[in-house]
């Protein structure tokens, strides 16, 4: 049973939950390294949620015996040409810019963008300098919890529909 595809999805959802719990604790902590610990736990939660998404996609592809069922990337799995209801629903969610799935994928992709140093103006001519674009706020524990719940609910619903008859 440990070699079933769903175990990977379940493990990733579980470890995302642990990282979210540790993130909440770090955010409430007053120790010197609390901000660094919070960032590390935030990244761990995103990593595990993205892994759970990949695991769910691999579950679906494995159940339907789709080509590329072992692809190691979410984008590859979403790009499988064969259609099934679960994969179609995930594609629709991923394509909608306002969906939780789209936000999860964007937050995960942002982990791989190097930080930018603040730009200093060349000279001070008496003008007040403001930033052109506000910096994005980091994903908070509440948002991560919502994404985890949504992903877990999808996995359970999809598994009910994919039962062999």
Automatic annotation (TrEMBL):
This is PasA protein. It comes from Pseudomonas flexibilis.
């Amino acid at each position: 049973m440990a070699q079933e595809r769903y175990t990977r999805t379940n493990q990733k959802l579980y470890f995302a939950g642990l990282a979210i719990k540790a993130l909440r604790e770090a955010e409430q902590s007053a120790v010197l390294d609390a901000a660094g610990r919070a960032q590390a736990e935030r990244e761990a939660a995103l990593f595990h949620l993205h892994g759970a998404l990949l695991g769910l996609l691999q579950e679906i592809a494995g159940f339907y015996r789709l080509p590329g069922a072992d692809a190691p990337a979410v984008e590859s799995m979403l790009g499988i040409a064969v259609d099934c209801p679960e994969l179609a629903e995930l594609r629709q969610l991923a394509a909608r810019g306002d969906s939780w799935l789209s936000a999860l994928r964007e937050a995960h992709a942002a982990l791989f963008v190097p930080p930018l140093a603040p730009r200093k103006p060349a000279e001070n001519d008496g003008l007040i300098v403001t930033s052109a674009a506000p910096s994005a706020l980091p994903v908070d524990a509440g948002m991560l919890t919502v994404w985890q719940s949504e992903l877990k609910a999808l996995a359970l619903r999809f598994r009910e529909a994919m039962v062999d008859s």
